[in-house]
Amino acid sequence: MPPADGSRAGPGSILLGVDVNGALLVAGTTSDAGKSAVVAGICRWLVRRGVSVAPFKAQNMSNNSIVTPDGGEIGRAQAMQAHACGIAPSVDLNPVLLKPGSDRTSQVVVRGKADGQVSALSYRTRTAALADVVAASLTDLRSRYDVVVCEGAGSPAEINLRATDLANMGLAQRADLPVIVVGDIDRGGVLAHLYGTVAVLDPADQARIAGFVINKFRGDPRLLEPGLDQLRALTGRPTFGVLPWADGLWLDAEDSLSAVADGILGRPAAPRGEQWLRVAVVRFPRISNATDAEALACEPGVAVRYVTEPSRILDADVVVLPGSKATVSDLAWLRAQGLADAITAHAAAGKPVLGICGGYQMLGRRIRDPHGVEAAPGTEVDGLGLLGLEIAFDADKHLGTPTGNAWGAPVTGYEIHHGRVVAGPGTPLLDDPGEGTDAGCVLGSHWHGLAENDAFRRLLLTRLAAHAGRDGFAVADDTSFAYERTRQLDLLGDLVEQHTDTAALEQVIRDGAPRDLPVLASGMAVSRA
Questions:
Q1: Where exactly are the structural domains of the chain?
Q2: 322 closest CA partner among 269, 256, 262
């Protein structure tokens, strides 16, 4: 097995009897094709083989992020993949993170630190310098691990972006990486997607596509085999595996909302007591770290639903206001949708409301933006007034991985926010260092990840159920969020091991894409200019 930190113990592990320093890029036909899950599954499978492995995503676009032990901010999917590898997350795993604050602008996070705002067009002027940052991080990882499994971004078929690409074929060319392409068959048209992805690339990029993986298959594989045979005949490339649909996978998704079926998060287990606890999580347009709700959804008898309309608030026992990348505009959206009035009425009836980070800030009396972090400098807006808070946005982002105690239970969490409590914090939710507010049925904190602490989560659910009048709800005493996460990572490893040609994957990781792959004629006319 690799050493405790996951790095290389000696000169390299043995794959197919050969000493290697291998790498692979997992691209996708579309966003949410399953790249993150396939990377995690490959990492988990390799780690169980005794290989030291690290994940890597050159450029991510997501408002789901975490703070690493080295003090930086990266995409949460890369933290999940690090868990699959048995290593600590670090900024090298995701050197460039884009956090959308609107449809046109994003905050740029470079090696864990915020580095300005960009539009889609202005970002192109920064990619040359960022390519050097990406290359340095990947080179460092490859010097320390036997294998680095890279994840693409969006689709490599976005040929209009090829000239400034950091994460797909641009990365593959610069770092000499073989590529496999993942397609989601549940969306329909997967064979056309896979063929077309190769066909629109220029010959040099096509030469790096070693084969395909099909994701989320339901039904009899024998019905798919003729299509895979024809795909190989058309492209000269094999399909390395067909991964079946797995109901049990929903934690730590790149886009948490993609894991939602009919609004319900996860697959809720039957209650231990006589009643369910119904939790409504407001789905802000710029929701961030929505994964905070996942720990609640792991509990038996807790049904967590994302909501965007007032009627869902009226049906809920508990309302959660999660994080937001655009607190001021999402607060305005809350009012425009009628959700603010519904939440206020919910609290007035003595039913619990929980705010996390941006949602916590919305619960206060006032939000001030003196530095123009989210709006025009000097902007002030009224909050919901359910807590006595006044919030001011600092120019610099607060990042941290604090520890403390809440209601007598030890807790850890992470902080990612510009807003700071400047007045009226009220009774602290956390004993040490005293962050957060406990006002009975309304409470909140800037800390993400609080509900992942098992002892505190049980106390929290007991409190919430009591305020909601759910006397028949019984909290489980044996649910472990860490165990549930590990179980899902093992399931991903099982899917790769049992449903892919692992010997062929090993060969691609070790030797790269075959040199005799055919070029599809339609790709000949594509230019990178």
A1: 28-250+486-516, 273-475
A2: 256
Matching residue, tokens 């009048």: 469
Q: Cα–Cα distance between 293 and 275 in angstroms, integer?
A: 20
Low-confidence ranges of the chain (pLDDT < 70): 1-20, 253-262, 432-433, 522-529
Number of H helices, E strands in the chain: 15, 30
Give the contacts of 494 (CB within 8 A, at least 6 positions apart): none
Report the DSSP pairing between strands 442-445 and 437-439. antiparallel
Neighbour count for residue 375 (Cβ, 10 Å):
17
Output Rg (C-alpha) for the chain, integer angstroms. Answer: 24
Query: 402 phi and psi, to 5 degrees?
Result: -80, 165
CB-based contact 84:69 (threshold 8 Å)? no
Question: DSSP class of residue 266?
Answer: S
CATH of domain 28-250+486-516: 3.40.50.300
Distance, in Å, from the CA atom of 26 to the CA atom of 153, rounded to the nearest integer, reads: 9
Same fold, 28-250+486-516 and 273-475: yes
Query: Tell me, which fold does domain 273-475 have in CATH?
Result: Rossmann fold (3.40.50)
Query: Alpha-carbon distance 45 to 37, whole Å?
Result: 12
Which phi and psi (to 5°) does residue 446 adopt? -75, -15
Query: 281-296 pLDDT, tens per residue?
Result: 999 999 998 889 999 9
What's the confidence (pLDDT) of residue 526? 45
Return the axis-axis angle of helices 190-199 and 221-235, rounded to nearest 10°: 20
Mind telling me the catalytic residues?
357, 448
Q: Residue 265 has what pLDDT?
A: 85
Look at residues 396, 412, 321, 401 and name the one whose alpha carbon lies nearest to residue 361: 321
- Taking CA atoms, 223 is separated from 156, 192, 226, 229, in Å, by 28, 16, 7, 11
CA distance 272 to 91: 41
Q: Tell me what the pLDDT averaged over the chain comes to.
A: 91
Q: Which of 79, 95, 17, 76 is nearest to 43 (CA)?
A: 79
Residue 20: predicted pLDDT: 61
Distance, in Å, from the CA atom of 209 to the CA atom of 204, rounded to the nearest integer, reads 10
Instruction: List the one residue out of 271, 277, 268, 273 whose CA is nearest residue 465.
Output: 277
Nearest to 147 by CA among 3, 12, 1, 37: 12
